[in-house]
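Today's session is about reading a structure prediction critically. Students often jump straight to the picture, but the first step is always the sequence itself: look for stretches that repeat, for charged clusters, for runs of hydrophobic residues. Only then move on to the predicted structure, which in these notes is written as discrete structure tokens rather than atom positions. Here is the chain we will use throughout the hour.
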Amino acid sequence: MNVPLFNEFGLLPAGEYGLALSQLRLSSLVLPGEGCPAGWDAAWRAKLVDNLAVMASQLWTVGITNIFIDGSFVEDKDHPNDIDGYFECELAYLASGELQQDLNRLDPNKVWT
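Below is the predicted structure for this chain, in token form.
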């Protein structure tokens, strides 16, 4: 799936755009394209996707497959601070603390809170 161009407000049109990480890396959210502002920081955006890949891999390992990204990364901001996002999981898995424990077992920095 292709990511559409930013609208006149610097936003993607409303909707969900299913992408594999490999597709995200080659999309207009990382590589400069039509409508991107001057100073588009593709190297920084690629690093953010590298960080996303680490977290997504951990989520996939514990069985979470529905991961969504948003925030300034999906806007026409040339240098977003980070990638905001969320994922879907079973409420009991989250509420019990088991999800956090499982993810922190995978992450050497224990970033999951």
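Discussion point for the tutorial: The longest strand covers residues 67-70.
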